[in-house]
Amino acid sequence: MIFVIKVTTNKEDRALEMISDKVRKKSVQVYSLTRPHGLRGYIFLEAVDRETAEEAAFNLPYIKGIIGKTLTYDEIKNMLTPNIEEIKIGKGDIVEIIGEPFKKEKAKVTRVDKSKGEVIVSLLNAVVPIPVTVKIDNIRVIRHENELSEDKDKDKKEINEKNEYAREQQSLSMVPTEETYSEDYNEGLGEQI
Length: 193
Fold this sequence. Notes:
This protein is of the alpha+beta class. The protein folds into 3 domains: about 1-80, NusG, N-terminal domain (Alpha-Beta Plaits, 2-Layer Sandwich); about 95-145, SH3 type barrels (Roll); about 145-190. Helix content is about 40%, strand content about 30%. It contains 5 helices and 9 strands. The chain has helices at about 10-25, 50-55, 75-80, 145-175, 180-190; strands spanning about 1-5, 30-35, 40-45, 65-70, 95, 105-115, 120-125, 130-135, 140-145. The longest helix has 30 residues, at about 145-175.
């Protein structure tokens, strides 16, 4: 039977350790303890019966109590199995660091080590480029390199179009019209006579 234990928010790990220590010392029949990622304020405990679960969690700090309803594995399976996401970070991407000590700093990815789950970045606002190794969990992609190159291509195209237009306008203003030819010719004839 799987029981849900209500604990103080952000103290789930500490409560889990305390229950685990008590189970080992008193040799209580608890099969498993888990703290699902993303579920704050709760711990799952698998035990033989409710009395055993209460004995494991009784009189410990951060433990608020056991919720009355028991769960089955099928009900909590999606919380326990990790969702494997493809890493979509590449060399040259612009990222924001969301973990300490470089929180809110922007950086450019220089190397990606998918096996270790790490990224080596160079801080954009640093005077001297220093390579910094950061866990992939601690960064957020702002722009991918291919987006940067597409933006640069668009910018170059816009600049070329503006330059072309400016050249056309300039060449049109420099080319004399028929009226200017005829005026210049008449003025020249008038002086000779």
